[in-house]
Amino acid sequence: MTGFFVSHGMEYGWAWFLATIIGILVIALPLMLAVAMIIYAERKIWAAMALRRGPNVVGPWGLLQSFADGLKVFLKETIIPTSANKGLFLIAPIVTFTVALIVWAVVPFQAGVVLADVNVGLLYILAASSLGVYGVIVAGWSSNSKYPFFSALRAAAQMVSYEVSIGFVLITVVLYAGTFNLSGIVLMQKGFGLGIVNAFGFNLLLFPMWVVFLISSMAETFRTPFDLVEAESELVAGHQTEYSSMSFALFWLGEYANVILMCALNAIIFWGGWLPPVDWAPLYVIPGIIWLFAKMLFFFFVFGWVKATVPRYRYDQLMRLGWKIFLPLSLLFVVLVSGWLMLTRFT
Q1: pLDDT tens digits, residue range 116-149?
Q2: Residue 308 in contact with residue 52, Cβ under 8 Å?
Q3: How much is the pTM?
C-alpha cells in the first residue's frame, strides 16, 4: 500500500504513515465488530448446551443484542470510588484494551497479509501479551478494595504460572520451524507430519504441545475452568468489581480480543494457519483467510463448549496443573523435539 501512495506522488514518509494507519484500522475495526458478534455466538452456544434459546429479541434472531448491551454500557455513568487512585483506576482498563490490540500487528491472515511481518513475531506476541497482567494488577490495587486486590494477586500468579509452560511450548514450535516469524511457522507446516499424516492440519510431533497450549491459553485468558480471577461466588466480579460504564466495557473488549487472538494462534502455530486442511488442489480455490477464520471459529466453539460444560477448578488444582504437569511436560518435549531434529535434520 505504501508503494501505491508513492506511485501517486506522495512522499515516502507520509505514504508509509498513511498506509500504516489504514492497516491498523482495517484490523482494529473488524476486530471490535468480531468481539460483539462472538459474544452473541458464545451466548448462543451456552444456550444450546443448556437447552435454552439465548438472545432472540433485539434484532433478527437477537443479532443486535451485543450492540444494545454496548450502547447501554456507553450511556451509563462512570463511577470512581472515593478512596481509589483515580489516575491508575482509569489507566488500568486502557492498558488491558491497548495490549489486546497491539498484539494483532504481527498476526498473518494470509500469505503477505499482515501489518508487520517481523522476524520475531512470536517473541513479540509473547512479550506484548504478558503486559496484560499489569492492567489487571493496577485495576485491583487502584480500586482500594479487598476483593479486587485479592483477584489481582490471583491473576498475577495464574498468568505467570501458565506463561512459563506456554513459553516452553513455543520453544518447541520455534525449534521445529527454525524461525520466530509467524508466516514462516505456517509455511513450515507444509508437507507430512513425520511422513505419516498431512501436517497441514496435524503434526504428530507437536500434537501434545498443542493440547498444552490450548488449555494454557484458556488459563491465560481467565476462561472457564480457570476463571478463578472472576470467581463470582468468592470475589464478586474480581478486579472489575469497582468498574462501571465504558471502563468496565474495555476490560470485556480486551478479554474477548485476547480470546480471539488465542484462537488465531492455535490455528496459525499448530494447524496450518491459512493453509487448507489437506494438500488438495481444489481446496486452494478458497482464499486462505477463509480457512484461517474457519479454524478460529472452530477453536472459539471449543472455548465456549468448555465454558458451558466444565466446572471451575479449585485454586490448588489450577496451580498443580500448571507447575506439576504442564511445566515438566513442556520441558520434556523441548528435549524430545531437539533430539528428533538432531537425528533427522542435522545428521
Answers
A1: 888 888 999 988 888 888 888 888 888 888 888 8
A2: no
A3: 0.88
Look up residue 231 and give its amino acid: A
Measure the CA dihedral 50/53/59/64, to 10°.
0
DSSP 68-127: HHHHHHHHSPP---TTS-HHHHHHHHHHHHHHHHHGGGG--SBTTB-S---TTHHHHHHH
Q: Where does the pLDDT of residue 76 fall: very low under 50, low under 70, confident under 90, or very high at 90 and above?
A: confident
Cell readout for 161 is 504460572
Residue 292's pLDDT band, with cuts at 50, 70 and 90, is: very high
Strand partners, 53: none
User: Has residue 193 got a pLDDT over 60?
Assistant: yes
278 secondary structure, DSSP code: S
Of 70, 90, 69, 87, the C-alpha closest to 78 is 90
Whether residue 231 is predicted with pLDDT greater than 90 in this model: the reply is no
3-state secondary structure (DSSP) of residue 330: helix
pLDDT of 331 over the 90 cut: yes
Helical residues (DSSP H) of the chain, grouped into ranges: 2-7, 12-49, 65-75, 86-102, 121-130, 132-142, 146-177, 182-187, 207-220, 232-235, 245-270, 288-309, 315-320, 327-344
- What CA–CA distances, in Å, run from 289 to 27, 188, 242, 267, 316? 13, 18, 40, 11, 40
Contact (CB, 8 A) for 311 and 225 = yes
Give the C-alpha distances (Å, rounded to integers) separating 233 from 153, 174, 270, 317: 17, 41, 36, 17
Amino acid at 115: L
